[in-house]
Design brief:
The complex is a heterodimer of chains A (about 425) and B (about 475).
Chain A (H helix, E strand, L loop, with lengths): L13 H5 L12 H6 L6 H13 L6 H8 L6 H5 L6 H16 L8 H5 L2 H19 L7 H5 L19 H4 L3 E2 L7 E5 L1 H7 L1 H13 L3 E3 L9 H5 L3 H16 L5 E4 L2 H7 L1 H4 L3 H9 E3 H7 L2 H6 L8 E5 L3 H5 L4 H9 L3 E3 L15 H4 L1 H18 L3 E4 L2 H13 L5 E4 H12 L1
Parallel strand pairs in A: 2-3, 2-4, 4-5, 6-7, 6-8, 8-9
Antiparallel strand pairs in A: 1-3
Helix pairs in contact in A: 3-6, 11-12, 12-25, 18-21, 23-24
Chain B lengths: L16 H11 L4 E2 L2 H6 L13 E3 L4 H14 L3 E4 L16 E4 L6 E5 L4 E4 L5 H9 L3 E2 L12 H7 L6 H4 L6 E7 L5 E5 L11 H5 L8 E8 L1 E2 L3 E9 L2 H13 L6 E5 L1 H10 L10 E9 L1 H15 L4 E6 L3 H12 L1 H5 L5 E8 L5 H15 L3 E6 L4 E8 L6 H18 L18 H4 L2 H14 L15
Parallel strand pairs in B: 2-4, 3-4
Antiparallel strand pairs in B: 1-2, 5-6, 6-10, 7-11, 8-9, 8-10, 12-14, 12-15, 13-14, 13-17, 16-18, 17-18
Helix pairs in contact in B: 1-3, 13-14
The chains are: A alpha/beta (about 425), B alpha+beta (about 475).
């Protein structure tokens, strides 16, 4: 069977590309440009490269691929653009275009980035064996985690969470009964929660149970597809989408909740362009915090007993939630927790620097962005930094570890879970 | 008259490999690129025209720039200095290929002298960054071009940037005390200094400010600072006619008050904002003035009250006075939403920035409206009423036959009317390439010859930003 890519083509974005008037506003907002200072990595530069690819003015060469790979997909430029040019979508389409012309070799297994970093070459063998054995034995081929950590490329310096003893989905039955009057909610776990941070999933289940929801955790769900898209692999992303369409639609849930800001954008924004069935499913996808808030979890949390001592917690905004205006709900839940004293940090909205596959190929820039965050977290006086995206958690924890700081990164759902558990 | 985008030109690199190698030795290999992606990404600025350089070079210090220019001068290679590439007239476009000389690595604030109220900066410092630093010390650098969050001070100085606050505080040239400059032949010179006074020799600082990178590469800038005003107050006044708004400007200035900003929007701008946003602007409003005063709290309260009295008889529809920073922000939001909303009128815009004596503002607006009607092209006007600087946006759809041509006719007629009223065709954007064809309308031949003589004497091989300001002979 021929594998196909159902996503839009770069040429479909021609009208949006033409909207860029090269005013330069993006120079003030692109975090990667802020670190690297080169026009080819700023939004208007990438849009220029996309246009040149379409016009045939430039080859899909490794340099073009490298420049297009330097995007966190944080969407900051889109929000600030006077003409609302969807730079993130254009970058993804351009990556797919390059993969279509040159094969996957330029992204996902980008040689150029490695060749430019000899130190990385040296650790290649060691890292490969270590991580293959440790991390990848139990992770399926198509998990986004494989794209987030294509083994040979993992930077030796990065600190990674330990793999869960037992994956989240294997711990629970496919169906968990709640109150009969409550609707059915399908839980989309995402790769990071399933393999690395099952405690986030546990927190989600506790919160859903507190509201009496019936919950299904479809066993055959897969990766949201965003890491594949980020690597320009539209074919794999299309296949994952088809698998998720079937798995998530199976029991006809009223809501499909995501625990990860990136998964949310993978199942909504990137789902809609794939066809009417996908668009219909995307309508039912909701970020779990929004659902919990709308259904009154705030009140339940506010009624929990006040502990003698509160924990100081600060908040980091995930870009993918902020771009879609979904960053309020998790903050409202955080504010409602009696166990938490919320301390503000400087630049809570700044990108953590993970950016899907970005940090794998551009770890140094990613680290610089992360270091800024680590300092801000420390200065806030918080013991933990809470956020609503497992990707951000991994990056924030790595940044804290690199800076030798004792603070821990966690998910709002973990704090919710802990507070609810204390009550029982 | 406007040349077409030429992004397809100069596919091949014209500089000899031998020279590229030497340039690499000067700046380090990683700071020079001949890659297609870099050549493309340094081919444009905010004019949306494209001209590929042969190579992009990112020097790290004055000495490197000196060596680069010596080499370029000896070999006859065009050099195009560049900051953020956010200019509106093509000042940084590499129209003849050669080297795009990117100055953003020179981005240090060298010192902020709180005793002498002076700052020394490198050209790649972003304007807003300096403002933040000095404001944290209770000081103030007033020039505020709309691009201040991304444009560089080097670019601001080379183009003599303005902004809304210039009514009261003056433009970039009023703050430049001294410069370090690499001449087109590679010498390093210093002009002016850090004293408020200084009359030894020609005032080369003033000559270089606004010279659009044609006479030298600015490598250090000494800037004058002011004490930061204690407070400010923002007001939005809606008028039933542009005439009322223009007379209000005259009344305020005539009343011996110079506000910090005195911005206006005409009825077409208001329509744009109405159509594109949910900002509430009453139907009767045909013109808007945004007035801001700054200084000691007690004084600005009094000034604001007096301004409202002065404008009251001039057809005021509504007045909003901001009580706090948030309300002030809401008022500025009205002004800021004009530019993005204009795209809804037509996809392409010709953005001019004429400046007339402020008393001539109503006449100028009436003339532009007449031209707009005659040529059947929407023209959106807004800008700095306080200093007569109007941003004239001629909105066309280049895909429609004849529209580009009609836009050019409109520009020519608007320039002619501007000059007749004693104005200038550019208040703050410069000439670059887009306005070069119109220079003979404003400057007499002897004045152009005088300027060209200076250029020839300083840059005999015409290597520094060639193809700008003056049309080729």
């Amino acid at each position: 069977m021929k594998r196909t890519d159902r996503h839009k083509k770069l040429e479909d974005y021609q009208p949006q590309i033409a909207q860029c008037v090269k005013c330069g506003v993006c120079r003030a907002h692109c975090p990667v440009f802020g670190e690297e200072g080169r026009e080819a990595v700023v939004a208007r530069g990438k849009v220029t490269l996309a246009q040149a690819l379409l016009n045939g003015e430039i080859e899909a060469d490794p340099q073009v691929a490298e420049n297009l790979s330097k995007c966190l997909l944080c969407g900051k430029c889109v929000r600030r653009c006077p003409n609302q040019v969807p730079v993130d979508d254009i970058v993804l389409a351009a990556r797919r275009e390059i993969v279509a012309r040159r094969g996957q070799s330029l992204f996902g297994r980008s040689l150029t980035s490695v060749l430019r970093r000899p130190r990385l070459m040296q650790v290649l063998a060691a890292a490969a064996s270590r991580f293959t054995r440790l991390l990848f034995r139990r992770i399926p081929q198509k998990s986004g985690l494989r794209l987030r950590f294509p083994t040979p490329f993992i930077d030796r310096q990065r600190s990674l969470p330990a793999l869960a003893e037992k994956t989240f989905r294997s711990r629970h039955p496919e169906f968990i009964t709640g109150r009969s009057e409550q609707p059915l909610v399908a839980l989309f776990t995402g790769c990071m929660v399933n393999y690395l941070y099952p405690q986030i999933g546990e927190g989600a289940l506790q919160a859903l149970a507190a509201l009496g929801f019936n919950v299904t955790i479809p066993k055959d769900q897969g990766c949201c597809g965003l890491p594949a898209l980020s690597a320009g692999d539209g074919v794999t992303a299309s296949e994952l989408a088809e698998c998720n369409l079937q798995a998530l639609g199976k029991r006809k849930p009223v809501h499909i909740v995501t625990l990860c800001a990136s998964c949310h954008s993978g199942l909504t924004h990137h789902f809609r362009e794939l066809g009417p069935d996908y668009a219909e499913l995307a309508e039912r996808v909701v970020d779990i915090h929004t659902l919990l808030r709308n259904e009154g979890l705030e009140d339940i949390l506010l009624q929990l007993p006040q502990p003698e001592q509160c924990e100081k917690v600060t908040w980091h905004t995930p870009c993918h939630l902020r771009n879609t205006g979904l960053d309020e709900a998790p903050q409202q839940l955080l504010a409602a927790l009696p166990t938490v004293e919320w301390v503000k940090m400087h630049k809570a909205n700044a990108c953590c620097g993970l950016g899907g596959t970005f940090s794998v190929y551009h770890y140094q820039t990613s680290r610089q962005l992360g270091a800024v965050k680590a300092t801000a977290i420390a200065e806030s006086g918080a013991e933990r930094v809470a956020t609503a995206c497992p990707g951000c958690i991994m990056q924030l924890q790595d940044s804290l570890d690199q800076a030798g700081l004792p603070q821990q990164a966690c998910h709002v759902l973990e704090l919710v879970g802990e507070a609810l558990a204390e009550k029982q | 008259m406007h040349s077409q985008n030429s992004s397809k030109d100069r596919q091949t690199i014209m500089i000899e490999t031998r020279i590229i190698r030497i340039l690499e030795d000067i700046v380090g290999r990683e700071h020079l690129s001949t890659a297609d992606s870099d050549r493309l990404c340094y081919s444009y600025d905010a004019t949306q025209r494209q001209h590929r350089p042969d190579a992009v070079i990112w020097p790290g210090c004055t000495e490197e720039i000196s060596l680069i220019l010596k080499m370029a001068n000896a070999e006859g290679i065009p050099v195009y200095p560049r900051g953020a590439g956010s200019g509106f007239t093509g000042g940084s476009l590499p129209v003849e290929g050669g080297l795009a000389l990117v100055l953003t690595r020179l981005n240090r604030i060298l010192r902020i002298d709180e005793e002498n109220l002076v700052a020394e900066v490198e050209p790649g410092v972003v304007t807003r960054q300096l403002q933040k630093e000095v404001e944290a010390r209770g000081l103030f650098y007033p020039p505020d071009p709309a691009s201040l969050k991304f444009s560089t001070l080097g670019g601001n100085v080379a183009e003599c940037a303005g902004g809304p606050r210039c009514v009261k505080y003056g433009v970039t040239k009023d703050y430049v005390l001294g410069l370090e400059v690499v001449t087109p032949q590679g010498d390093i010179i210093r002009t002016g200094g850090e004293t408020m006074k200084g009359v030894v020799g020609y005032d080369l600082t003033k000559l270089l400010v606004g010279s659009e990178g044609t006479l030298g590469v600015i490598t250090k800038i000494i800037l004058k600072l002011l004490p930061l005003p204690a407070a400010k107050k923002t007001m939005l006044v809606l008028f039933d006619s542009i005439d009322g708004a223009a007379r209000a400007v005259a009344a305020i200035i005539g009343g011996k008050i110079i506000p910090t900003t005195l911005e206006f929007m005409d009825s077409t701008s208001i329509d744009c904002v109405r159509r594109a946003t949910d900002l509430k602007l009453p139907e009767a409003a045909r013109a808007v003035l945004i007035i801001e005063v700054d200084g000691e709290q007690a004084i600005i309260e009094e000034q604001a009250e007096r301004i409202l009295q002065l404008v009251a008889p001039l057809g005021v529809v509504e007045t909003r006075v901001a009580a706090d920073a948030e309300e002030s922000e809401a008022i500025w939001q009205v002004r800021r939403s004009v530019s993005p909303s204009m795209r809804k009128v037509n996809p392409d815009k010709f953005n001019e920035d004429i400046c007339v004596p402020r008393s001539k503002l109503p006449e100028m607006i009436r003339t532009i409206d007449a031209i707009s009607e005659k040529l059947q092209i929407p023209i959106v006007n807004f800008g700095h009423a306080g200093d007569g600087n109007i941003h004239v946006n001629i909105m066309v759809d280049k895909a429609q036959p004849g529209q580009g041509q009609r836009a050019e006719q409109a520009i020519e007629e608007i320039f002619a009317a501007t000059l007749e009223l004693g104005g200038t065709m550019s208040g703050e954007h410069g000439v670059g390439v887009t306005k070069a064809p119109y220079i003979p309308m404003e400057l007499d031949p002897a004045a152009v010859a005088y300027m060209k003589a200076i250029k020839r004497a300083l840059d005999p091989n015409n290597i520094l930003n060639p193809g700008k300001i003056f049309l080729q002979d």
